[in-house]
Structure formats: C-alpha cells, structure tokens
Design a protein that fits this description.
Shape: globular
Helix content: 10-25%
Number of helices: 6
Distance between the termini: 43 Å
Order of helices and strands: HHEEEEEHEEEHHHEEEEE
Oligomer: single chain
Radius of gyration: 20 Å
C-alpha cells in the first residue's frame, strides 16, 4: 500500500548523513615504507589467469601482488585467504563500511570476523584517475558478490559453469587439494578488480559499465599476512554488456609477485588479530 508523504517529508530527506564508521582512529598503513619496499623489488613468481577461468598464487607477507591487464579490457574477481587458515578471508562488507564502495591507493582490505585485521593494502592503482563518474560509477568495487551459477539459474534457467563463483571454486579446489564441495564453502564476495560499477540513482540497482582498463594497467596490493590469492577472469570481459555467458570478448589477466630487497622492511610485522576478547557480554 502506498502512503502519502508526510507534511515534513522534505525536512526528513534533508537530514544530513552521519558516517557509520569514522576512521580517524584506524591505524594507518605506512605508505612511505611500502613505496620504499617496492623500489628495487624483484619479481619472484607469476601466473596467467586464462579467460573464463581462475588461477591461484601464494603471496608471502611483505610481498606485493600485482594484477595486470595484458591483452584487452578484462575484469578480475579476487578472493584473498590467510594462506595457513582458509577460514580467515577477505571481508568485503567491512572493507566497504570502512573505506567505501570502491578501493584505491591507501585503502586496506580487511578479513572477516572474528579476525578483523587488514590483510592487504592497495599501494598502486593505474586507474585511480577515474574517480567517480556522472553515473556514480567507479572502479575496483567491494559491492558486487561475483557472478554465480545459482543466480544465473534463477534468472535465466540455464546452467553456466564458467562464472566467477565456479571458476574460483575449481581453482581453490586445485590449489588446496579440496573437493569442489569443500572449496565452494570458502569462496567469498570478491574485490572486483578493474570493474566499473555503481548504483542507479532512480532504482538503487547495482550496475556495471565497460571498464576503462587498458593493457598495461594494474592494481597492486601489499600482503600484510601470508596470502593465497585466487582470481577469476570474469566471463563478462570488460563487463560492458553481460556476464554469466560466453557472449563477451574475454582476455587473460596476469598475477605477479614481487619480493622487496632484503632488510628494507626491517621492523615491520604483520597486523595482529583483532583484540576483542570474544566474551560477547558473558
């Protein structure tokens, strides 16, 4: 039932917003140290993420993970895990609440409860020039959940096996010797690398548009803990038209690992687990 607006509707809409999680007291990453550590760092590993597939790579704490567009405009769906404990993983919801819907240089990626600590820091982003466009779109979002076969079945009635959820499931299963059922339980909401997204102003719906990424563009993370990175090259390609299908042109992505020079991170340590005592009032 639609109700008439109250007489003070305009006044109610005009109430100023309050930031839910002011971040002034958050520990700040030492970006100057990370920049210094990146200078002279040597590439020690790499893996190609094939189109409509996923790949995994380990990232030691204190190393850098760079995702590179190498052939054409392509979006990547990135899962991050504690290498030693898959139950600790990227928590896009809290990352979004702390840093906003899209991340760039200086923002940190946080792990899930009860761990809640920064597990990676964005140190380089060749798309940070994009900002927020006239539609409210921006790049590298932590709002999209990943394309998945269940939603595809719900909306289209088809079984499609190369959406990002399934790609990540297969790659994690292969990387850790898990069954698909075991691996799927660990796959989580992603950092949408290079993806350009936002919310429509009229309906509030999640939208995507063609990514501005070009060959040679990259997003680089500093690993705050030992990580397992699993990334899918989305079947939507640049996500300018559709996903969960083989219609879009798709391209590979490159994940590279860089090791800093010996001694440059002397004194640096991984963030401790969240200090809450977990008593929950009892």
């Amino acid at each position: 039932m639609t109700r008439a607006a109250p007489s003070d509707a305009d006044m109610r809409r005009a109430v100023k917003p309050v930031i839910c999680y002011p971040t002034e007291t958050l520990p700040k990453p030492d970006m100057a140290l990370y920049v210094k550590a990146r200078e002279g760092a040597q590439k020690v590993a790499e893996v190609i993420v094939p189109p409509r597939e996923a790949a995994a790579i380990e990232v030691p704490a204190g190393h850098f993970l760079r995702t590179v567009s190498i052939e054409g405009p392509q979006v990547g769906d990135l899962n991050l895990f504690n290498k030693a404990d898959l139950s600790e993983r990227l928590f896009t919801g809290k990352t979004r609440a702390l840093h906003g819907t899209h991340v760039t240089i200086g923002d940190q990626l946080w792990s899930n409860l009860p761990y809640l600590r920064p597990i990676a820091t964005v140190v380089e982003d060749t798309l940070n020039w994009y900002g927020i466009d006239a539609y409210g779109g921006s790049v590298h979002d932590v709002i999209g959940t990943r394309c998945d076969p269940y939603t595809g079945k719900l909306l289209g009635g088809t079984d499609y096996h190369h959406c990002c959820h399934s790609n990540l499931t297969r790659a994690l299963a292969d990387a850790r010797g898990l069954s698909l059922e075991e691996a799927e339980r660990h796959v989580h909401d992603v950092l949408n690398v290079f993806m350009c997204t936002g919310f429509t102003r009229d309906t509030g719906q999640y939208f995507m548009k063609a990514s501005p990424v070009r060959p040679g563009d990259y997003l680089e993370l500093f690993a705050e803990i030992d990580l397992l990175a699993v990334q899918s090259a989305c079947p939507g390609g640049d996500c300018g038209s559709e996903h969960t299908s083989d219609v879009a042109a798709c391209h590979p992505l490159l994940m590279e690992i860089y090791k800093p020079r010996d001694g440059v991170l002397e004194g640096w340590t991984s963030p401790a687990l969240n200090a809450y005592d977990r008593s929950h009032g009892r």
